[in-house]
């Protein structure tokens, strides 16, 4: 058995256990407001932890990554949709990268 299949089985098992154990242990709905609030914000925290550091190094320079992040924050704060924010962030990062290339 190659290493790939061993890693795949371990990954699938750990992913399944993380998702299946809460369903097996908690059969009724959660009434505690603190726990419900905590569970509500977990996806946002995980998404931020994954996206924020990567946005600095996803482009050729950190400056263009920061520019794209600022543009994204601006349009997200203004209530624009996800697709618009993503496209605007890409364009902002591209323009700064282009400007740095010209200079």
SSE map:
Blueprint: H1 3-25, H2 33-57, H3 62-77, H4 82-102
Features:
103 residues; mainly alpha; 4 helices; 83% helix
User: What kind of sheet is the major sheet?
Assistant: none
Q: Identify the quaternary structure here.
A: single chain
Distance between the termini: 54 Å
Rg, rounded, reads: 20 Å
What fraction, in percent, of the residue positions are helical? over 70%
Sequence of secondary-structure elements: HHHH
Q: What is the typical, i.e. mean, pLDDT? A: 89
Number of strands: 0
Instruction: Give the CA-based shape.
Output: flat
Helix/strand/pairing class, anyone? mainly alpha
Strand content: under 5%
Number of helices: 4
Q: Segments where pLDDT lies below 50 for 5+ residues?
A: none
Tell me the domain tally: 1
Description of the structure:
The chain is mainly α. It has one domain. It is 83% helix and 0% strand. The chain is flat. The mean pLDDT is 89.
Q: Could you give a quick summary of the protein structure above?
A:
The protein is an all-alpha fold. Helices cover 83% and strands 0% of the residues.
